[in-house]
Automatic annotation (TrEMBL):
Residue intervals of the SLC26A/SulP transporter domain: 18-366
Taxonomic lineage of the native organism: Bacteria, Pseudomonadati, Pseudomonadota, Alphaproteobacteria, Sphingomonadales
The name this protein goes by in its record: SulP family sulfate permease
PANTHER family in the record: SULFATE TRANSPORTER
GO cellular component: membrane
Biological processes per GO annotation: transmembrane transport
Membrane-spanning residues: 21-42, 48-64, 93-111, 123-141, 169-188, 195-214, 246-268, 326-356, 376-404
Source organism superkingdom: Bacteria
Membrane topology: Multi-pass membrane protein
Length: 420
């Protein structure tokens, strides 16, 4: 079924449901704000673009999703491919590739391709997730350590070489802010998990930096003041040659958006006993990835951590996700200067913690206990993700996984990841 869940939930919607959804939406927005800014910066874009993506993409996904509680926005999984596309083709190329990915997802949803997630072996998902987490962590070292390395290369080995060459510029102030922010996030998540931990940690670090006039970069000092409204929609340059050139990137974006959104919906179903509609979910991701780039946004997908936060905060209908997007819009309209005061080492700390969560170290013992062929898939995908190319990693992992499954006579079964 391709019917959005919003239409079903409106039949018996009530004031108590709206109150719960509104409170959950505000809670999720407080989690999403620093994440969207940090993800956009790590992707080679600007903080404003990250917020626009969460507002436009998040609203469209909630309004059309096949899940009652899905929260959409930019996610860490896209950082690698987005950074590469911007470096090679500019922001205009990314906008075109994202819109093409949206069209691919709409076609996939129309043909009910959501069930094809069963063909992607779990070790491949784990491998490229850990690989992406590794790349995200490496991309944050420059701001986390306050290194003056200039523009570092995108590839892992040259990146590490450039950062090592700049080791003499290490800022102990930046390192201290990063370490303190990480510590506050981890401690508050353990002691006060219902608090808006990311906002508290980043705001505290930024206030302390401003109070003591610490020599660290802020969002405003590096990127300028944030605009106080949404940009006008515009189409990128479209030619046949450009469409062919951006097609591989579009397929990667579509794959990541489809897989992550479906995994997020599966996790959410387990948390509150729901049942998402895979085809409707793919259609929602398609619509969002067509609309968001028209406003200059990044690729968007269902965000597992933010969706889980929504469920835990009491969100039970798509209204919660729509409120989350409107709250971020309100912040952009009336409090852009506050966002500009956030210090970059604290935002780097947010992504370092995000990378740690993505890598799920508590599951590494389970990975070591896998069969030899599953370990091979995981290690191959991880290695290719970090040192080669995400497209190659996904293609090689899925192809080898299908060959091994056929060779061992396995039957493909749908797997469901636990909430990490």
């Amino acid at each position: 079924m391709r019917r959005p869940k919003l239409l079903d939930t409106m039949r018996d919607y009530s004031w108590p449901l709206f109150r719960a959804d509104a409170l959950a939406g505000v809670s999720v927005a407080l989690v999403a704000l620093p994440l969207c800014i940090a993800i956009a910066i790590a992707s080679g874009s600007t903080p404003f673009v990250g917020l626009v993506t969460a507002i436009i993409g998040g609203f469209v996904i909630s309004a059309t999703s096949g899940s009652r509680v899905q929260i959409g926005g930019p996610t860490g999984a896209f950082i690698v491919v987005v950074y590469g596309v911007i470096q090679d083709h500019g922001m205009d190329g990314l906008i075109l590739a994202t819109a093409m990915a949206g069209i691919i997802l709409v076609i996939a949803g129309a043909f009910r391709a959501g069930r094809l997630i069963a063909l992607v072996p779990e070790p491949v998902i784990d491998g490229f997730t850990i690989g992406i987490a590794t790349i995200i962590a490496a991309s944050q070292l420059q701001d986390a350590l306050g290194l003056s390395a200039g523009k570092v290369p995108a590839d892992m080995i040259p990146k590490i070489e450039a950062l090592w060459a700049a080791r003499d510029t290490l800022s102990f102030v930046a390192l201290g802010i990063t370490a303190a922010t990480v510590a506050v996030i981890l401690l508050l998540r353990r002691w006060r998990p219902r608090w808006p931990v990311l906002v508290i940690a980043v705001a505290a670090a930024s206030l302390a930096s401003g109070w003591f006039h610490l020599p660290v970069d802020t969002v405003a000092s590096r990127f300028g003041a944030l605009p106080s409204g949404l940009p006008a929609p515009h189409w990128p340059e479209i030619t046949q040659a450009r469409l062919i050139e951006m097609l591989p990137s579009a397929f990667v974006i579509a794959f990541l958006a489809g897989v992550e959104s479906l995994l997020s919906a599966i996790v959410a179903d387990r948390m509150f006993g729901g049942q998402h509609r895979p085809s409707a979910e793919l259609l929602a991701q398609g619509y969002a990835n067509i609309v968001a780039p028209l406003f200059g946004g990044l690729p968007v997908t269902g965000a597992i951590a933010r969706t889980a936060t929504n469920v835990r905060a009491g969100g039970r209908t798509p209204i919660a996700g729509m409120v989350h997007a409107l709250v971020i819009l309100a912040v952009l309209l009336v409090a852009g200067d506050l966002a500009g005061a956030l210090v970059l080492p604290a935002l780097a700390a947010v992504l370092l913690v995000t990378a740690l969560n993505m890598a799920e170290p508590e599951k590494w013992r389970e990975h070591l206990a896998l069969s030899w062929d599953d370990r091979l898939l995981l290690i191959l995908t991880l290695t290719l993700t970090v040192f080669a190319d995400l497209t190659i990693a996904i293609g090689a992992g899925v192809a080898l996984g299908l060959v091994l499954r056929w060779w061992k006579g396995r039957v493909a079964t749908l797997w469901t990841p636990r909430d990490g």
